[in-house]
Amino acid sequence: MDAPETVLHVAAAVRDAAGVAARPGAVAVQGDRILAAGALDDVQRHALERAPDRTIDHGEVLLTPAFVNAHAHLDLTAIGPRAFEGTFLDWVGMVMRERPTSAADIRAAVAAGLRRSQDAGVGWVGDIAGSDEAVLARALADDGIRVPGVSWLEVFGIGSRTGAGIESAESRLATLRAACAGAGEVRVDLQPHAPYSAGLALFERAAELGSPSTHLAETEAELEFVTSASGPFRDLLTRLRGDDPMLEGAGTTPVRAFAAALRRSTWVLAHCNYVEDADLDVLAGCPGVVVAYCPIASEYFGHRGHRYRDMLARGIPVALGTDSILCQPPDEEFPLGILPACRRLRARDGTDPGTLLTMATVHGAHALGLESGAATLARGAPARFATLAIDSRDPTDPWLQCLGG
Ligand SMILES: [Zn+2]
After folding, report:
1. I need a labelling partner for 111 at 20 to 30 A (CA). Which of 40, 41, 42, 56 fits?
2. For the chain, how many structural domains are there in total?
3. Domain hosting residue 226, numbered range
4. Is residue 1 in a domain?
5. What CA–CA distances, in Å, run from 190 to 101, 150, 330?
6. How far is the CA of 177 from the centre of ligand 1 (A)?
7. At 1, is the pLDDT very low, low, confident or very high (cuts 50, 70, 90)?
8. Model confidence over 63-83: pLDDT tens digits?
9. Distance in Å, CA 375 to ligand 1 centroid
10. CA nearest 332: which of 291, 375, 299, 292?
11. pTM of the model
């Protein structure tokens, strides 16, 4: 059998978060795996045993590993960006009314989301699937767009409905895993929706069944609900199906109330906008936890002062996400990209460029449970890249140029 084709990718600069940085640079690829990456001369002269079958000169770009979007809602892509009006509950109501419901519309929305992710240089997505159809559309995408990662099926069940929620989640997960078994590159797991819609027992069962995700510590209303079973989310649940005496306050924060479940598995915790020092201590003691911070979405909803740097300082990995396209600015060319999130944190907080690249790639790979080396340019890593326009005559560091300085 012939060896797979070797391709030399040449770029004005190459960079990853695992030690590769060169300008000009090159990445040699055989089949779908990286053979070598670094300075153009080194890769050409020393890393390749023979001349490559093909050379692709990408020109005036910084070539990086493809980015990882650790928290997306691809099935909402059809709605498009929306202004945030009213309360969070009004907004949730709008999403419920406008989200696609027919199988064909869900498939089209997920396909559009995958295409927009790929166009933005995103190579892996952690997607929250609002329906079985969204999982199938993601895992079995058949129009040539390959964006591996995870599909987390959103499940509900709280108070007196927790048991029924667990039963339903178990059977849907088993059916979907069987249906997607051939898909290979997309793992299927559960997303207990949030502490105001899924009970602790459902969180614990999701952890027993795999590596789940959830929305955690997202709003002050959630904090109130978890602490004392009161506030806007209690009112919503009562409106939807009458008073539920099984709903009880935990007397503490969401992170601490759910700590037992968080310790049980690897988890991706979307948002964590409202955390205290004691919560950070708990998270730092959960070795499987990765926080998925969605800076543009957090700002859209008015949350301020995210503690991602405190988390990183305590050894808690923080990956980046977009949340849904609804939260993105209407004029953003790449609304499902991770580079806009990096640029936002650079402009707002002056965050270290290397830290941002780590969050956008390596921590994202960790969040999605990808193979070792994924989202780096290391030998043997999957050959999935982003190419970002730069000015090669500008002496400014290429990645810093991409971040807007
Ligand atoms: Zn979300």
Report:
1. 56
2. 2
3. 67-367
4. no
5. 20, 10, 30
6. 22
7. low
8. 999 999 999 999 999 999 999
9. 23
10. 299
11. 0.97
